[in-house]
Amino acid sequence: MEPRPRSFYVLSAFFALFLLFLYGPTITIAILSFQGPGGGLTFPMRGTSLHWFRDLFEQQAVGDIWGSFRRSFALGLMVMVTTVVLSVMGGLAFRKKFRGSSVLFYLIITSLVIPSILISLGVGLIFSQSGLEVHWSTSGFGSQLTWTLPFGLLIMFAVFNRFDKSYEEAARDLGATSWQTLRHVVLPIIGPSLIGVALFGFTLSYDEFARTLLTAGSYNTLPLEIFGMTTNVTTPVLYALGTLTTVFSLLMIGLFLSLALWSTRRKARAGSDAGKGML
C-alpha cells in the first residue's frame, strides 16, 4: 500500500477546521444550554442539568416563544405548499419558449440578488400604503415567497431539462388525458425533487429574518423573537431555545430526506414490477 501524500493530511486538517468553524458555534450553544441553575452565558460551565430546558417550558417573563414558534411553523407550511405548487406550474410553463419568457425568468431571479431588507421594506410599504394590514400571514408570507420561489423554480427547471418526454408520449398513446399524464406519470417521476423543493421552502421560511423584519406586523416569528430575546435575556434559557430549534430543524430535514428515500425506492420498485410484468 502506497503511503499517502502529505497534501492528503494538509487537506484533511483544513477540512476538519472547516467543519469546526461551521458547526462549532452550534455545538458550543448546545453544551452551554445544559448548565446548572447558576450558569451564565460563557464558559466555564457551572454544573450540568436540564434546568434551562424546564425553564423554557414555563411561563416566560419576556417574549412569546411558543406563540412565535406556532406562527413560524404555520408560515413555513404555507410557504412550502405555495412554493411547491407554483414551482411545478412554472417548470411546466417554461418547458416551451413563449414570448417574454426570458424577461420573466430574469425578473424572478432578480429577487435573489436584491438585499433582503429592501424586499422587506418594499413589501411593508406596499401593504401599509394600500391600507392593508401588515401581518405575518399576508405581507410576511408574500415577502418570503420572493426568497423561496426562485430556488424552487431553479430546481424545477433543472428537473424538467432532464425529463424524458417519451414517458408522456407513451401515456398519451395509451389514451391518457393531459391531467392523467401529469398525475400518474410526471408527478411520480419528479416526486423526490418535489420533496426537495418542499424542504427548501419550509427551511428557508422557518429561518428567515430579514425579509420578515418589516413585514411581520405586531406578531413576531421565531427568528424575530430570538433576536429580541438577545437584547434582554441574559441566561442560558436562550441557548436552550437555540438547541431545541436546531433539533427541530434537523428532525424536519430528516423527515423530508426519509420521504425522498421512500419515494425513490417506491418508484424503483414500481419500475421493477412493471419490467417483470412485461416479461
Automatic annotation (TrEMBL):
The chain crosses the membrane at residues 73-94, 103-127, 147-164, 185-206, 237-262. One of its GO terms (biological process) is transmembrane transport. The keyword Transport applies. Its main location: membrane. Keywords: Cell membrane, Membrane, Transmembrane, Transmembrane helix, Transport. It is found in: Cell membrane. GO terms for cellular component: plasma membrane. The keyword Transport applies. Residues 69-256 form the ABC transmembrane type-1 domain. Belongs to the binding-protein-dependent transport system permease family. CysTW subfamily. This is Putative spermidine/putrescine transport system permease protein. It comes from Litoreibacter ponti.
